[in-house]
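Why should sequence recovery work at all? Because a backbone constrains its sequence more than one might expect. Tight turns favour small or flexible residues, buried strands favour hydrophobic ones, and helices have their own preferences. The token representation captures these environments compactly. In the example below, the structure is given first.
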């Protein structure tokens, strides 16, 4: 009986894989194939990304002195005004939420935090890079420390920051840089990562399965696999950031951003919040989870999309973070 059941499971997986493969091949041949999570659009056209070949852990960063119509990268390679050595510098690490995807100059979260602090002796520097995860935050900080003099380190935590950025530079006919942000299926079922990437690029069915699987597991708080899978990499990355802050003799403060479902009542990511709480408490990093305070606002007004703040949202978030920094005595 056990052998029959095993064979049935193998046959089922074979059928599923065959369907996905056929659909992927059709998607590959179709000129209208959907691009999956193209969060960094055309890396050759906008010319603001350095793509590192080989096994470099940081993978890519921002090109110094480059600009788009909506943002500028300074000569040190991050989206901020020039560091002012006469002011106390607050370093704000993060991904595209901190960087300010889709937001014009003057409207990013770090800029609104600086406005809300209302202190001319403070400067908030935006060290956010789209697509980065927590491990890359640390590497990027180390890269930029030689010309910074930070007094506070803030780490912006998006709920998908524990996922490794899987970078694909396609051929010369495509010239796209893809950041895949839902590797849950391949991690949980130990699928070959090359097969996973191929299916993610070309199979709409597989992409839908990934999104369904991620949301289902996040809703089920009893599924401890989420914590177990990501614990080691997150603990290591946050431990390195804390150690760096201690070596600089400055406080480190983590800010947890929620996902922006269209309805707060159907929020599906509580397990990921709890996992981050557990990790930050374990390491001993003080943190602020923005979800409860942001729930007081109409989500349609503070969201740009499921992950990013709108222009109005960054104003609200900047004011909330400033309030926390002052109430906790991190900023006197």
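From this structural description, the recovered sequence reads:
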């Amino acid at each position: 009986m056990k052998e029959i059941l095993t064979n049935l499971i193998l046959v089922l997986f074979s059928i599923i894989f065959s369907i996905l493969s056929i659909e992927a091949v059709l998607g590959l041949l179709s000129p209208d194939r959907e691009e999956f999570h193209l969060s960094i659009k055309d890396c050759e056209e906008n010319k603001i990304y350095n793509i590192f070949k080989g096994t470099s852990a940081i993978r890519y960063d921002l090109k110094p002195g480059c600009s788009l119509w909506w943002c500028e990268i300074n000569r040190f390679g991050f989206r901020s005004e020039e560091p002012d050595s006469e002011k106390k510098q607050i370093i704000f690490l993060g991904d595209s939420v901190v960087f300010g995807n889709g937001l014009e100059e003057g409207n990013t979260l770090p800029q609104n935090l600086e406005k809300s602090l209302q202190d001319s002796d403070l400067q908030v520097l935006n060290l956010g890079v789209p697509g980065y995860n927590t491990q890359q935050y640390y590497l990027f900080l180390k890269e930029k420390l030689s010309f910074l003099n930070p007094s506070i380190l803030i780490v912006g935590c998006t709920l998908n920051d524990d996922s490794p950025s899987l970078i694909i530079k396609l051929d010369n006919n495509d010239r796209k840089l893809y950041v895949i942000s839902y590797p849950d299926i391949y991690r949980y079922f130990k699928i070959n990562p090359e097969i996973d990437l191929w299916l993610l690029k070309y199979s709409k069915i597989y992409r839908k399965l990934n999104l369904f699987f991620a949301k289902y597991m996040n809703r089920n708080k009893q599924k401890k696999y989420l914590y177990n899978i990501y614990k080691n990499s997150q603990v290591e990355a946050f431990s390195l950031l804390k150690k760096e802050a201690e070596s600089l003799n400055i406080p480190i403060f983590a800010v947890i951003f929620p996902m922006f479902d269209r309805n707060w009542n159907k929020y599906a990511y509580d397990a990921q919040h709890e996992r981050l709480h557990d990790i930050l408490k374990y390491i001993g990093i003080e943190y602020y989870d923005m979800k409860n305070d942001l729930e007081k606002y109409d989500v349609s007004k503070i969201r740009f999309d499921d992950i990013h703040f709108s222009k109005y949202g960054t104003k609200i978030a900047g004011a909330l973070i400033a309030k926390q920094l002052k109430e906790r005595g991190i900023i006197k």
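A few observations help interpret the result. The domain at 43-163+223-327 is CATH 3.40.50.1110 (Rossmann fold).
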